[in-house]
Amino acid sequence: MAAREPGEEEEVKLIKTWSSPYALRAVWALKLKGIPYESIDEDLTHKSDILLHHNPVHKKVPVLLHHGRSICESLVIIEYIEETWSHNPPRLLPEDPLQRAETRFWAKFVDDKIWQAFSKEGKEQEQGLSETAEHFRLLEAELKKKKKRLFFGGEEIGIVDIALGWVVNLVPLFERILGVKFLDEERHPALLEWRQRMSDVDVVKESWPPRDKLVAKWTAIRERCVGKAAANE
């Protein structure tokens, strides 16, 4: 895919919701690359015609609109942003093919093994959360491979950091709601240092949804899950 020339006029829009961690990935990638965009906030309880038109398959956010063409799925959007605005630093994926493949592996690992554990319900969630400790251990080991590495992307934020970025804000919230400790100094020193560095990045900390609204949302989700599980017993 050919990169666009610097200074060329762009038309970029992002369909998102106020709380989606997937949409937040696209927000961070656009802001890190310095790409101006128009935000279109979506209400998923009453999905708009524009969302259904541009994402007729999954009907979910985020959706990036670039000159009217739609790109769906957060990790796909990040890659599109990198390839289209490759002249804008930072580089979100490495140039080396092997390193790029490894980076894609870990970004997908975050979705398949970490986030999905929190998004399940009832007994499936309990089983998923019990496996999360091992998954965080693997991420800890990956981050420690290079002792002076600041981020998963190296000296600068990359796609894995963006994919895992929700950990900065949501894991402490989940620990509070679920009463379970996921990250601690003894087992995850590198991940906790990484979390602090991510939280200090301007585009990250300025983009967080209101915490009180997040607490209310995820508490309500947890209560619904508990209620469903009890009804099925």
UniProtKB/TrEMBL annotation:
Cellular component annotations (GO), alphabetically ordered: cytosol
Alphabetized GO MF terms: glutathione transferase activity
UniProt xrefs under Pfam families: GST_C_2, GST_N
Domain GST N-terminal: 10-89
The keyword Cytoplasm belongs to this UniProt entry's keyword annotation: yes
EC assignment: 2.5.1.18
Predominant location category: cytoplasm
Keyword tags: Cytoplasm, Transferase
Name used for this protein in its record: Glutathione S-transferase
Organism this protein belongs to: Linum tenue
